[in-house]
Each structure stands twice: as structure tokens, then as C-alpha cells.
Specification:
This protein is mainly β and about 325 residues long. The protein has no helices and 22 strands. The chain folds into 2 domains: about 220 residues, Jelly Rolls (Sandwich); about 70 residues.
Length: about 325
């Protein structure tokens, strides 16, 4: 599929390493490199399923090389749909509170390509419980009268006042506290909302399925836009009660143009900077990327001086008990 999507220059996501017990840590991560390429092939691979009307017609599928160096990715939209609501969903079936992991974090690398036919729709990242009931969603409205990013708690849709750029890959990070019914989200490091009510639906709060959805604005699906959503990666994490957090300053570039990250550490912990160029495989082989904290409130400064760094790279901080 032809596209003008291109990679963002710099992104950082911060996660804390978790001990493996029960269903904690990584619950799910896409690895599109293991998917077969072609139209209609996102559905039915590795646990992803679409609605019946999106199983054919090229509304969804797996691409290869849409962006140089990105590898395989998925798409939803572009072609003429039969119905106005189409989706791809992945079953997770996790009870965050019951399993001692009240907080769930979702990191997904996405981009939205604009319409060229003068019609504009909306795309969503949506959460349902294990009974299939709607909980909440983040909406990327491509409609000209209401362009931007919104969030829906099942009763009220609110405008974040943040907008997105067409043809840009961006990192959406969502953190949901199921116990206290709160969530936060940021988009390429820009806060969308923080510690607001997750769902006002009254439905049971657990993580059943996560979905990417396309809803046609016009009641007639024949009036759909040829806009489409690209999904490069998605990771879903379960974070145990009392898991430590890492406070960081905003990532930036230094005077030499290298990505820099600064954060404070605590005695007794070792901090490892990991990176990925695709949100697939995380690596920890950068020079000077391991830090042992020996003083209270010690400030840690990391600079990625890798001369072979690609245009797109993401980072995370793993916090481990110092041996």
C-alpha cells in the first residue's frame, strides 16, 4: 500500500522491569515480522480477529516496507467498507486486580494517513472487558469539524485539545489503574490526560480485549474516507501492586544532536537503559547504559552516542535490585 508515512526522529518510553510471577510483566507484544504479508491477513494471525465484514475486501492486512527500515506492519482502512464499523481485536483476558497487577500499560506505535477523497472518519484504540462490554477508548478523529484526539469513558467523550500529524508514526502510551478506575495517556510524550476516570459505563473492570477500530463518519458506509490507520507495534504490560516507578525529565537532544535522558535513582537499584528500533526486540548493548545508584537522589544522565543510530529509536529503563 502506497504511503507517505515516515518515522519520527526520537521517542522514549519508560518501563520498569518486573519479576516474573503469575501474569505480570509482558502480557502481549506484536511481532509482525512473523506474520504473513498481504491484504486481509491481519485477521486470523496470532490471535487477531476482525468483524466478519472486514475479513475480505482489503480493509485490513499486513504490509512490508511501508516505511524504510520499519519491516512489517498492519493497516486498517483505505478500501471501501460494507459496514460503518470495522475492527481488529486481540483477546487478553486478564483480571488486573484479581491477579495483583492493577495497572496495565499499553504502548502502541501508530500513524494515520489522511483521506484523498474528501471524506474523513475516526479511528480508535478501544478497551472491552471479558464479557465484551465497552469500557473506554481513545479516538483519533480525522473529521474536519472535530479534528484531534478525544477520549471516551463510556458516557462522555472529551477533547484532549491535542492534535496529530498525518503521515507521522507516533507512540501512544496508555496507563490504566483498574483498581482505582483511573487512566492516563500521552502521545509522543505530550500528555493527553492524567489520572482521570477510566470508565463511567458501570461495566465490570477487567481487560478482556483490546481493539483498533475504524468508524465511518457518514451513516452510509459508501461515503467512507480512504483514510487508514497503520499499526507498527503494540505491547501490553501488567504491573504489580507497589511496582517502582522512574521519574524522568523530558527527553531531549544535546548540543551535539544526541538523544539524552535524565532521571533520579534510588540506592539499592541498578538501572539499565534498553532500546528498540521497532518496539519488537529490546536490546541493552549501548555503551555506558548501566547505572548503579550509590547515593540518595542520585541523578542519572544517559546519552545515546551510537553513530549508527537510525532515525527511529525508542528507549526504556529497567530497574533491578543491585546484587
Amino acid at each position: 500500500m502506497a504511503s507517505s508515512l515516515h518515522s519520527i526522529i526520537f521517542g522514549i518510553t519508560l518501563l520498569t522491569a518486573l519479576a516474573a510471577h503469575g501474569k505480570t510483566g509482558l502480557l502481549y507484544s506484536t511481532d509482525f515480522e512473523n506474520f504473513n504479508v498481504g491484504p486481509d491477513l491481519w485477521n486470523g494471525q496470532h490471535g487477531w480477529f476482525s468483524n466478519s465484514y472486514a475479513q475480505t475486501g482489503g480493509l485490513q492486512g499486513i504490509d512490508n516496507g511501508v516505511i524504510e527500515g520499519l519491516g512489517k506492519s498492519s493497516f486498517l482502512g483505505f478500501h471501501q467498507p460494507t459496514v460503518g464499523w470495522n475492527y481488529l481485536t486481540r483477546q487478553i483476558n486478564h483480571d488486573p486486580v484479581g491477579e495483583g497487577t492493577a495497572t496495565i500499560e499499553i504502548d502502541t506505535l501508530i500513524g494515520l494517513e489522511d483521506s484523498t477523497n474528501g471524506k474523513y472518519d475516526s479511528f480508535f484504540a478501544t478497551f472491552y472487558n471479558t464479557q465484551g462490554d465497552f469500557l473506554a477508548a481513545i479516538q483519533f478523529s480525522n473529521e474536519r469539524e472535530s479534528f484531534g484526539i478525544f477520549y471516551d469513558d463510556g458516557v462522555t467523550v472529551r477533547n484532549t485539545t491535542v492534535q496529530f500529524l498525518h503521515g507521522e508514526l507516533s507512540l501512544l502510551v496508555i496507563s490504566i489503574d483498574f483498581q482505582n478506575n483511573l487512566w492516563s495517556a500521552d502521545f509522543d510524550g505530550i500528555p493527553l490526560f492524567e489520572s482521570v476516570q477510566f470508565t463511567a459505563s458501570g461495566n465490570a473492570r477487567d481487560l478482556g480485549t483490546f481493539a483498533y477500530e475504524w468508524i465511518v463518519t457518514d451513516p452510509d458506509p459508501a461515503m467512507a474516507g480512504n483514510n487508514w490507520l497503520l499499526v507498527a507495534d503494540c505491547s501490553i504490560w501488567a504491573i504489580p501492586f507497589g511496582a517502582p516507578t522512574v521519574d524522568t525529565s523530558s527527553p531531549s537532544f544535546n548540543n551535539d544532536g544526541f538523544p539524552t535522558l535524565q532521571f533520579s535513582g534510588e540506592i539499592g537499584w541498578t538501572y539499565q537503559i534498553e532500546y528498540t528500533n521497532s518496539l519488537g526486540q529490546w536490546l541493552s548493548d549501548l555503551p555506558n547504559s548501566t547505572f548503579v545508584v550509590t547515593q540518595p537522589g542520585q541523578i542519572i544522565n544517559f546519552i545515546d552516542e551510537d553513530p549508527h543510530r537510525p532515525e527511529m529509536r525508542y528507549y526504556r529503563v529497567r530497574r533491578l535490585v543491585t546484587p
